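Page 47, continued from p. 46.
Same chain as before, 466 aa.
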Amino acid sequence: MKIQFCGAAQEVTGSAHLIQLDSGFTMLLDCGLYQGYADHMEHFNTKWYFKPSELDCVVLSHAHIDHSGRLPKLVKDGFKGDIYTTHATRSLCAIMLLDSAKIHERDAEYYNKRQRKKGSKKRVDPLYTKDDVAQTMELYSGHAYNRWFRIHEQVEVMFRDAGHILGSANVTLRIYENGKTIHFGFSGDIGRPNRPILRDPQPMPEVDYLICESTYGDREHTGGSTELDEFLKVIRHTCVEKKGRLLIPAFSIGRTQEIVYMLDQLETAGRLPHIPVYVDSPLAVNATTIFGAHPECFDNELNEYLLIDDNPFGFNALTYVKKVDVSKELNDSTEPCIIISSSGMMNAGRVKHHLFHSIEDAKNTILIVGYCAPGTPGGKLRAGDEEIRLFGNNKKVGAEVRIMDSFSAHADRLEILDFVKNQRGRTKKIFLVHGTLDRQEKLKESLMTFGFEEVEIPKLAQVYEL
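Result:
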């Protein structure tokens, strides 16, 4: 049995891990898009370390594009197997991959138009199209949590709730090979306990080998017990005291719904100032509908809240924006308001336009509530850059920049250690993925101090024999 790390190796995005049994059966854990600007990753999204037509199946942990975003490219290049995931992940992928295809088509069209104007014959094709997405969705096979199901005569799979986004799962493989039973684990993205909407992460069964994420493996998030009060302070400071606009770049899936739910709670309690709130992301609007269709993923707190408010993602001051014209009108408006818009890294989507029109005004606040890859506008703001480039213009950072990592949907160092504590004494080797090298090295130290003897940090394309 071999494993090759085909993505998210010493990187945070592009999750893809290939497992090949001695019998020749091959499966891919995730098939994510790389989202970043590192020179050595320039061609990652267009190439493979295996032949897609020879791959038997994909096991998908969740719908985030850095885990699912290359599936249509995989299908376009010859893959015809099954894609196993949870029911909610299948629902989210139907809209997320379509949105991704539109972005790739639009980017290719823009590039080709510029080349024509220059008199150049250079042309590019989109990574994949909406038609590729339609073919991809036909291959999905949805499954419930906490039930073993067979994908091959030698392999059974079980999903447990990872508590990261709607439908997210950690993956346990029960592999029968050469007269032995091997338990292989993939953490996916580990969520955090006591977060709104979703259940807490469920521990995995004991496994022999474990692939574990390490996004925040070197730090502890700030406590979430006062998060709602801190969030309210930022709202009051920006929209009431400064009479400015609060711009919240947020991923369309998970983070947006969590923020809306918190605003709904504040409004229900009579604590939210009387200001308009806009969710300006068509994808987030559609995703919120899907959230409502999958209550099996909700935690007890939200189920109890539904008894007093049957719509936790909507209140009188909230407007969901779909039309481009309405989004443009928000840029011209000077009224105090809250704008929640994607993408969370501010490198694409409508939020980039809002950032362009808001960033130089000291009355405004940009509230960063999630991970931003280095090199993206969000990454530069997190790093404290005083000037960033948007749409070909250099813009001074005059707006206040606030960071609340307590919103993070990724487990921190202590939460990762808590998640894997039941593996001590059983797991022979842990492979760290989905993290930058500096953070992985810190987490490796913590894991070895915690009692794990073998912790590996794979390089991209590295192969291990188990």
